[in-house]
Write a structure and sequence with these properties.
Blueprint lengths: L2 H7 L3 H15 L5 E5 L2 E5 L3 E7 L8 E5 L21 E5 L7 H17 L9
Antiparallel strand pairs: 1-2, 2-3, 3-4, 4-5
C-alpha cells in the first residue's frame, strides 16, 4: 500500500470512501503520480495539479478536491470555489453519490491540459 492509501485508510468510512474514489479517478490518468506533502495527498504530472483536503473542522466529514492553479481554469462547469483564496480553487464532497463525474472529469482534463501546455510560474515575490 502506498503512503497516500495509508493516509486515506486512516479516516472514517465517509471521507475515506470519497477520498478513495477520487484517488482512483485521478490515477486513471496516465503519468499521474502521488506524494504526501504538507501531510495531505498531492497529485502531480509536470507540476502539482491537485490535492485532497479532508476537513477536520467540518462535522460532516467533507473532502475538498483542490486544484492548485484553479484561478487559471475556466470553471465553465461552475464547480470550483475560491473560498477567499487567490490561486487555488476546490470542490467539496460529502459522499461519492454527490460527485458529478462528467463535470469533474472536464475540470480535471482542463487542469491536466494546463499542466501540459503552460509551465507553472510561481507568483511569489523574490
Amino acid at each position: 500500500m502506498s503512503a497516500v492509501e495509508d493516509f486515506i485508510f486512516s479516516f472514517p468510512k465517509g471521507p475515506q470512501s470519497v477520498m478513495l474514489f477520487l484517488h482512483e479517478l485521478l490515477l486513471e490518468h496516465p503519468e499521474m503520480t502521488t506524494k504526501i506533502r504538507y501531510k495531505i495527498p498531492f497529485y502531480y504530472r509536470k507540476s502539482w495539479i491537485c490535492y485532497l483536503n479532508p476537513s477536520k473542522a467540518d462535522q460532516k466529514g467533507r473532502v475538498e478536491l483542490v486544484f492548485l492553479r484553479g484561478n487559471e481554469l475556466s470553471n465553465a462547469q461552475g464547480l470550483l470555489e475560491a473560498k477567499g483564496r487567490k490561486q487555488v480553487m476546490g470542490i467539496s464532497f460529502e459522499s461519492v453519490d454527490e460527485i458529478p463525474l462528467e463535470s469533474l472529469n472536464e475540470v480535471l482534463q482542463e487542469a491536466i491540459l494546463l499542466d501540459e501546455t503552460v509551465p507553472y510560474a510561481s507568483k511569489r515575490k523574490k
